[in-house]
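Render Class I SAM-dependent methyltransferase in 3D.
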Amino acid sequence: MGSQLFESYPEVYDALYGTKDYRGESQFFAETFAERGSATGENCLILGCGTGRHAKHLSERGFDVTGIDRSEPMVETARTRSDAEFRVGELPDVELASDAYDLVLLPFNIVNYLEYGDLEPTIATVEDAIAHGGVLVFDTATVPDEGTMYLQSETAGEGDHARLVQMRPAGENRARWNSIVFSEAAPSGFFVDNVTLALYDDEYVGDVLDSHGFEFTYRTDYGEATETQEQISIFVAEYVG
């Protein structure tokens, strides 16, 4: 993944995504679990938990949340946000108890940040960890053929933060997310953040879910919690074994 934003500047990450509707998305996750899941527990696993905002809202809704992220600074920030359990781990090889989780989330395009080809072993890891009748929810990003560019500016606390982003195709099944981030948190006042994303065809994702015992539905929004500029595919999958 190699993102300075994730690995070194969790406070800047929080500032840039401060307007994201984590509460609304968490409500979607909870309501979807109530509607689709036949598992009776409330153990929730968030793979790619970031700074713990989804975990906070789901804990407030009564879930017993475990959050895992590859970035230690993000995990450290998450621990200040709620009493959920947080630890460092990296997909697809993270160690998890079998049949332990009723709701499993890979939010905010986490799948795209995996190495290309790691989707199938990641879903295999989830299959072992999720309880029968449990619900898996994740989303994947899409990149227009011509790419996209935008400027974002946010003020949080005592600091101003801005980011110039270019997303563009970068060969088969891949895209580049190139950013210049301007922030007072960086010693030089800015840093460069370049990330390669893995892109997955929706049909392929569906085939992977089918092969690991998941029945799924597909949608393109989180309802009112979806930001207008987002281009996402959302998979809601029940584990039927």
